[in-house]
DNA sequence: CTTGAAAAATGGAGGGT
DNA sequence: ACCCTCCATTTTTCAAG
């Protein structure tokens, strides 16, 4: 596992905020020419430091403006129930994130819904038919103050 | 606000998963030639459906493998205290997301730390010096089962 | 790392249905 | 409105030094 120097970190930071920067633009910001920057970026991709490049879609513009953190407690805690839950819940298009967590609940889901009615339908009809779920607790997002999508380097 | 057709949605979906796709590759997937695809993508960018393009960085490879959801209750609930809290907490590099939420707590933070010791330091020394905070409750992520970063179209 | 050049993609012009 | 083909420009990509 090769070490990263200052320049690599800076490149990750730049691309983590804006991946449309060209090699030329990146080069200018790290005081190099495009070629070594190209090689560094390819190395960062190849070694998995950069996982992928994506476009961020505006969820509000697509009528998915309601964000809910949904805490879930399983009925039982054996491995197979947990596995069933994860595979069931990842099928649901409203669920964009799923974490196995410590504490009172077993899982935390981030859910996007059009509105309250849609979320109600999600809880009763979709989560309601996932057998492994014991109970749920929903926390509604009133305002997203920040989401940087990446660690802050 | 112009409506989106099937093709636009498909383009958003494709770019939301992989923004390295070229106009040519996108064109092939939606059965068009590169030019109209180019125009559509520029329109989606211009109208804000696509907010930005970013590289996703592997947090584990950068020694930020511990994810914590930190619930925070403010001391008081006036607007200025809330504003102070947000501006203070967004300065902290460990905090990548911040939500104003309903329920027992006022805010939910997503925090990345190197390890438990680092998180302990974050809670005691960094959050500890934010005056507006009343109490906190940390939920530790044991496994990230899914994070799609975008709504599922 | 630099230079430099081939291959590929972008971004428009102009025209067709 | 929407699409196409063609082409100049820019960028990417990869030699060789």
Determine the N-to-C terminus distance of chain A: 19 Å
Subunit arrangement of the protein? homodimer
Strand order, largest beta sheet of chain A:
3-4-2-5
Spans where pLDDT lies below 50 across 5 or more residues of chain A: none
Tell how many strands the DSSP assignment of chain A holds: 5
Structure explained in plain terms:
Two copies of one chain form a homodimer. Chain A is of the alpha+beta class and 153 residues long. Chain A has two domains: 6-46, Arc Repressor Mutant, subunit A (Orthogonal Bundle), CATH 1.10.10; 66-140, Lrp/AsnC effector binding domain/regulation of amino acid metabolism (RAM) domain (Alpha-Beta Plaits), CATH 3.30.70. Helix content of chain A is 35%, strand content 30%. Chain A has five helices and five strands; from the N terminus they run H-H-H-E-E-H-E-E-H-E. The first copy, chain A, has helices at residues 6-17, 23-29, 34-46, 79-89, 116-126; strands spanning 50-57, 66-74, 95-101, 107-113, 133-147. A four-stranded antiparallel beta sheet of chain A has the order 3-4-2-5. In chain A, strand 3 and strand 4 form a beta hairpin. In chain A, helix 2 (23-29) packs across helix 3 (34-46). The mean pLDDT of chain A is 97. The interface between A and B is large, with 57 and 57 residues. Strand 1 (50-57) of chain A pairs antiparallel with strand 1 (50-57) of chain B. The first copy, chain A, binds a DNA duplex (17 and 17 nucleotides) through residues 22-24, 32-36, 38-39, 42.
